[in-house]
Write a structure and sequence with these properties.
Helices cover 81% and strands 0% of the residues. The chain is mainly alpha-helical and 192 residues long.
Length: 192
């Protein structure tokens, strides 16, 4: 099923409504859809490098709006919609313990999930379910999704097709290592 969704998502990149498709996929990925918008962004930017910043901007805005929808699901529809989405990703059993500490570290969770391969929808739903401050959630989402999509766009714009393999296979790892180093640095400064 995931492979069919992936193939269908890729085919959208070639359609004349690709920007709309990207907006819809980025919106849905932040709340319920399992395929990240990067699979649309990459071929779109490679096909039209002059539109790289527009494509990244659409992905960022749509993703943040989708994140707000995920927040709404968590805040108002958690039992009927949010819980099944978390169960699908195997994160439902962790909710109770996580919710108790979430608001203390919520902005960091949004930043980490927004730039790493961790499913962003899980964090958007948890943010709403635990009542994370909405302005804090929005700011962290804009920063995280902006970093993720504009870095991908910049790499593709600058290096073109040769960087595609790196982005598809290793950029998630690079973002994850960066976040670990950043959090580790803050930890060292605070406790040493």
């Amino acid at each position: 099923m995931i492979r069919r969704l992936y193939d269908w998502t890729i085919s959208l990149a070639e359609s004349r409504n690709a920007l709309w498709a990207l907006a819809i996929v980025a919106f849905l990925e932040s709340s319920v859809f399992p395929i990240p918008p990067d699979v649309l962004m990459i071929p779109m930017i490679l096909a039209r490098p002059s539109k790289a910043w527009l494509i990244a901007g659409i992905a960022m805005v749509s993703s943040v709006l989708g994140g707000l929808f995920g927040y709404f699901i968590g805040a108002y529809l958690f039992d009927s919609v949010g819980q099944p989405v978390l169960a699908f990703y195997g994160k439902d059993v962790l909710f109770d313990g996580f919710a108790q500490r979430y608001n203390e570290y919520g902005p960091w969770a949004v930043l980490v999930a927004g730039v790493t391969p961790f499913p962003f929808k899980v964090i958007t739903i948890l943010s709403g379910a635990t009542g994370l401050s909405l302005p804090v959630f929005i700011i962290a989402s804009v920063i995280a999704r902006g970093l993720r999509f504009f870095i991908v766009a910049a790499l593709l714009w600058k290096f073109g097709p040769p960087i595609r393999d790196f982005i598809e296979r290793r950029l998630g790892l690079v973002f994850t290592l960066f976040v670990i180093a950043l959090i580790g640095g803050f930890y060292l400064v605070k406790y040493i």
